[in-house]
Amino acid sequence: TSFSTPKKKKRDDGMREHVTGCARSEGYYKIDKKDKLKYLNNSRAFAEEPPADTQVRTRPLLTAGRRSEQRRLLSSFTGSCDSDLLKFNQLKFRKKKLKFCKSHIHDWGLFAMEPIAADEMVIEYVGQNIRQVIADMREKRYEDEGIGSSYMFRVDHDTIIDATKCGNFARFINHSCNPNCYAKVITVESQKKIVIYSKQHINVNEEITYDYKFPIEDVKIPCLCGSENCRGTLN
């Protein structure tokens, strides 16, 4: 049997049209260089001139007036919204440069590696959130294990943050009766967090301290901060 081969047609762009409707059913065939160059030139010209609705619009440069207006809007925004939340988000992406090393107050301490302005978030106190019952059990267990210091920070009446075995550099901050920082409880996405704020300007290599504010007890813990108005005890 002999079938007449259908004549190959060419499209307007120079490429051969598939008679069967599918390139796979026609097998391999070679494309002339002239047709290939014509197709490449047409496709390149189409790529160089995108449609008007798909063109990328360049962002204009901000002038000095626009920059000052944006700063004014940002300041008004921070004043009307929760500034603690905004500062906490900034702290997550731009962490302060800190280091821990030997302290003249007690054992280890936390020191600033960069200047820190007043009323800034320094570091978050990170640990495990536990209940009061668990905190009492862990405190006894730490004493049995010979752990001299337990790093527990009370958030509220029911929640305590335990950073003894699971925490960050914030647990190395020592107590001082004249501290340069203070602790504050803030709420982020319905979760309470403890953040250390700076009370004043902190210089490089200056130790970061805050007042532990321990409750008054009969068994006193001596204070070694060495400040002028030292109370003598932590509790």
UniProtKB/TrEMBL annotation:
<dbReference type="InterPro" id="IPR044570">
    <property type="entry name" value="Set1-like"/>
</dbReference>
<dbReference type="InterPro" id="IPR037841">
    <property type="entry name" value="SET_SETD1A/B"/>
</dbReference>
<dbReference type="Pfam" id="PF00856">
    <property type="entry name" value="SET"/>
</dbReference>
<dbReference type="GO" id="GO:0048188">
    <property type="term" value="C:Set1C/COMPASS complex"/>
</dbReference>
<keyword id="KW-0489">Methyltransferase</keyword>
<dbReference type="InterPro" id="IPR046341">
    <property type="entry name" value="SET_dom_sf"/>
</dbReference>
<keyword id="KW-0156">Chromatin regulator</keyword>
<keyword id="KW-0804">Transcription</keyword>
<feature type="domain" description="SET">
    <location>
        <begin position="96"/>
        <end position="213"/>
    </location>
</feature>
<dbReference type="InterPro" id="IPR024657">
    <property type="entry name" value="COMPASS_Set1_N-SET"/>
</dbReference>
<keyword id="KW-0805">Transcription regulation</keyword>
<dbReference type="Pfam" id="PF11764">
    <property type="entry name" value="N-SET"/>
</dbReference>
<protein>
    <submittedName>
        <fullName>SET1B methyltransferase</fullName>
    </submittedName>
</protein>
<dbReference type="GO" id="GO:0032259">
    <property type="term" value="P:methylation"/>
</dbReference>
<dbReference type="GO" id="GO:0003723">
    <property type="term" value="F:RNA binding"/>
</dbReference>
<dbReference type="GO" id="GO:0042800">
    <property type="term" value="F:histone H3K4 methyltransferase activity"/>
</dbReference>
<keyword id="KW-0949">S-adenosyl-L-methionine</keyword>
<keyword id="KW-0808">Transferase</keyword>
<keyword id="KW-0694">RNA-binding</keyword>
<dbReference type="InterPro" id="IPR001214">
    <property type="entry name" value="SET_dom"/>
</dbReference>
<dbReference type="InterPro" id="IPR003616">
    <property type="entry name" value="Post-SET_dom"/>
</dbReference>
<keyword id="KW-0539">Nucleus</keyword>
<feature type="domain" description="Post-SET">
    <location>
        <begin position="219"/>
        <end position="235"/>
    </location>
</feature>
